[in-house]
Design goal:
The complex is a heterodimer. By secondary structure, chain A is mainly alpha-helical. Chain A has helices at 24-37, 39-60, 73-104, 107-112, 118-146, 158-179, 184-199, 212-219, 222-235, 242-268. Chain B contains 11 helices and 14 strands. The chains are: A mainly alpha, B alpha/beta.
Chain lengths: 270, 301
């Protein structure tokens, strides 16, 4: 403590690199480093959970059922759970974890004191939660492959698609985080938005037999489009309107990001 | 280093900053003083480009703010009022990760960790989780973290609030080191002894405007009588009415204590002789007296 060197070299040599538009990667990197510390539990969550669900429900209920739209119930459920899991994973990260960094840990405030902008942070969190969703999806694809459910290599298309689905739910969730006052708000989000959407999007049972108005409502949201794509590409169900499905999901991803960015900017730079 | 002119900021019906002008010269320590709600933190946030002012101009480290606030922050270190160390990382990782936000490479950050830990007196805590640090350690780490980019200017919002005397002295010692290195310090505080000790210049802010500015000793000379007698004890009321008011140039009774300000305390002290029930304290005027004179004794919370 007694012999103090100057803290750092000469004055005025602060790093000032040319502005780059990849500053958001610092935020992704930070979250990745934290996630890596908990790798064990994260992977168990990503792999063991869906495996148990698929085996339990797929074989348990599946054995009682005839084929569902030409698929075994295990195939049907696997492709539905794929999307459900991407949604859940991205949503939890962009809600609970992001809100913790926004409010309780003041992580974002600290980052803003560095030469970073709110937009850097929001894009970083959006991408990170999207990646977590995608990782969850990739794990389920792995489980499905292990169970012999994947019909062709077209299932590989689902890797970029689960990232897009992750970004869509990450974007929507960040909007909710932007306006949230406490964690309680997220319970409303899950109970009043996520659950009903799940029930009308063909995740656990087909949406075809639902009343037309309910079906139509389901198609306004990204989950039904994600399950349609997953079912077509992973287990070989008939697949139409690929562009429409992708477009709806992408619109949610981009609009969510834009709106979240505006709201969080307002909140943090009051 | 910092030039602020005509700064105004309104939240709803309340204008919290109402025309602030500031100039801070390179290599000096500037203190922004004021009661809670005076607008100090808002002023600092505007200077850093974290809040957009309604009007006024700001130049920080030669760059216009908020237009080039991000670039300006690359040359600035910030010690916020509430610690926002990253609880998911260790002490050393906090320093490294923070440097990354400045665009420094991992190697550049790692090269600085040891010196910064020496500076913060945390060399044996490099691998400790943040939650195991005391308040004083966290503050020193936050200060060290703010140095990761070798800043020309440091902004500190109440740097020693909540610290015990030992920890405060250690922080003051480090801040003096930074001053001798030629850095510019800008701090808010409501500890007048801290301001008097560290600051070359102070500005006292109240209700969104700066009501006095100058070197601490200048303000004391200019604003207030040099001697202060504090008197308290049984019978203070009657003594204050008959003698206290009469033999001082300015006086006030705050609670059970009389504060008497004067140039020559002799006559006043003689009135206290033989009054064993009254106790008195004679001292020189300080910045706190100036502050209380200018901003009043009413609570602001």
């Amino acid at each position: 403590m007694t012999d103090l060197h100057p803290v750092v070299g000469a004055l005025g040599t602060s790093s000032e690199r040319p502005a780059d538009r990849f500053r958001f990667l610092h935020v992704v990197h930070r979250n990745y480093l934290v996630w890596r510390q908990l790798l064990g539990s994260a992977l168990v969550g990503h792999l063991a959970d869906p495996l148990l669900w698929l085996v339990g429900f797929g074989f348990g209920i599946g054995s009682l059922l005839p084929t569902v739209g030409g698929l075994t119930y295990l195939e049907f459920l696997g492709s539905g759970m794929l999307c459900y899991s991407v949604m859940n994973s991205a949503s939890f990260e962009a809600l609970y974890s992001a809100f913790t960094r926004l409010k309780h840990q003041r992580t974002w405030e600290g980052i803003l004191h560095a030469p970073m902008t709110v937009t850097d942070i929001v894009i970083g969190e959006w991408v990170w939660a999207g990646l977590k969703g995608a990782l969850s999806g990739a794990a389920i694809l792995l489980v499905m492959a292990g169970l012999g459910l994947l019909k062709s290599f077209s299932a590989l298309w689902l890797l970029p698609i689960v990232l897009l689905v992750g970004l869509a739910f990450s974007g929507i969730a960040l909007v909710v985080t932007a306006v949230a006052k406490s964690y309680d708000m997220f319970t409303y989000y899950f109970s009043l938005f996520v659950m009903p959407m799940m029930l009308v999007s063909g995740v656990f049972f087909p949406a075809e037999q639902l009343p037309p108005i309910v079906r139509f409502t389901g198609e306004l949201f990204p989950l039904s489009h994600a399950t349609a794509l997953a079912r077509g590409l992973a287990v070989g169900a008939p697949l139409d309107h690929v562009v429409l499905h992708l477009a709806v999901i992408a619109i949610y991803a981009v609009l969510g990001l834009g709106l979240a960015n505006n709201l969080i900017k307002k909140r943090l730079t009051k | 280093m910092l030039k602020v002119a005509g700064l105004r900021k309104r939240y709803g019906d309340l204008e919290v900053v109402r025309g602030v002008n500031l100039q801070v010269a390179s290599g000096t320590c500037f203190g922004l003083l004021g009661p809670n709600g005076a607008g100090k933190t808002t002023t600092l946030r505007c200077c850093l480009g974290l809040t957009t002012p309604d009007s006024g101009s700001i130049e920080l480290a030669g760059l216009p703010v908020p237009a080039q606030a991000r670039e300006a922050r690359a040359r600035v270190g910030v010690v916020p009022q509430f610690d926002n160390l990253d609880p998911d990382f260790t002490v050393a990782e906090n320093l490294i990760m923070y440097g990354r936000y400045f665009g420094l490479s991992r190697r550049e950050c790692e090269a600085q960790v040891e010196r910064l830990l020496v500076f913060a007196g945390l060399t044996d805590k490099a691998k400790a989780p943040i939650e195991t640090l005391s308040g004083g350690m966290k503050r020193r780490l936050t200060l060290a973290r703010a140095m990761i980019n070798d800043p020309q200017i440091l902004f500190m919002d109440e740097p020693t609030t909540g610290l015990d005397p030992q920890a405060r002295h250690l922080v003051w010692d480090r801040l003096k080191t930074l001053l001798t290195e030629g850095r510019t310090l800008i701090l808010t505080t409501h500890f007048m002894d801290e301001a008097q000790r560290l600051c070359d210049r102070v500005a006292i802010m109240d209700q969104g405007v700066i009501i006095a500015e100058g070197a601490p000793h200048e303000l004391i000379d200019r604003e207030i009588e040099p001697a202060v007698i504090e008197v308290y004890g049984d019978g203070i009321d009657s003594w204050f009415e008959t003698a206290g008011k009469r033999y001082s140039e300015r006086s006030e009774l705050a609670g059970d204590t009389a504060f008497c300000y004067c140039h020559d305390p002799g006559p006043l002290l003689r009135t206290l002789e033989g009054l064993s029930e009254l106790r008195s304290l004679r001292r020189s005027a300080n910045l706190e007296d100036v502050f209380l004179k200018l901003t009043g004794r009413d609570l602001r919370d």
